[in-house]
Amino acid sequence: MLFADRIDAAQRLADALDAWRGKHALVLAIPRGAVPMGAALAEALQADLDVVLVRKLGAPWQPEYAVGAIDESGWSFVSDPDAASGEYLEGERARQLERLKERRRSYSPRHPPVDPAGRIVIVVDDGLATGATMIAALHAVRSKGPQRLICAVPVGAPASVEKVKPYADEVVCLYTPPNFHAVGQFYRNFDQVEDDEVVACLERFRAKPGAPAAD
User: Which residues are in the Phosphoribosyltransferase domain (predicted)?
Assistant: First the structure.
């Protein structure tokens, strides 16, 4: 299975999640790549959109390889404790937590995060590699008391999908290829998403009638 781009993937996810169309669901996208996807998914499901802010803890030898992840509260998940020293992980947690604070200031300067309590919440990302950031995101949302918590991804490594399952009420993954190496290999167009596109997606939804009011 090959997706044309993130919007194509979102449309296919919307078909798989059609049961939640018009049910006042909340789509929470993991920035940055999943936000345009989350916007398209929220449009298709007549849902609200916001972000769940988590950051991967990068390996010392390769920052793009996640040895764990951290959420806004400072809770962290270490998926590969043998990959880095405790001292390195402590410093990486501090660095990534500061990045999360910067992103919250950038993405939500005048708006509180949408409260997921009591709602059907769909956490979306453009794929699961190690699964670490998704686990952190699901943990963060679960602590807020959603009615139902759904993980939705177009593609994922089979082992990572299994690791994520205990953290969600439902996992929707369209494709679990045995030859998974990187998320981008399953997209024809996998361009980087910039902060201004994230902000534009969020502002478009906040301008809709019934959206949470600014502080």
Answer: 12-188
> Can you tell me which residue has the tokens 């994520």?
164
Residue 74 tokens, joined = 């400072």
Residue 46 corresponds to which amino acid?
Answer: Q
- The tokens for 15 are 């078909």
φ, ψ (nearest 5 deg) of residue 138: -65, -40
CB atoms within 10 A of CB 97: 17
Pairing of strands 120-124, 76-78: unpaired
Angle at 53 between CA 126 and CA 41, to 5 degrees: 40
Distance between CA 147 and CA 108 in Å, rounded? 24
Output the pLDDT for position 24.
94
**What's the pLDDT tens digit per position in 106-159?**
888 877 889 999 999 999 999 999 898 999 999 999 999 999 999 999 999 999
> pTM (2 decimals)?
0.91
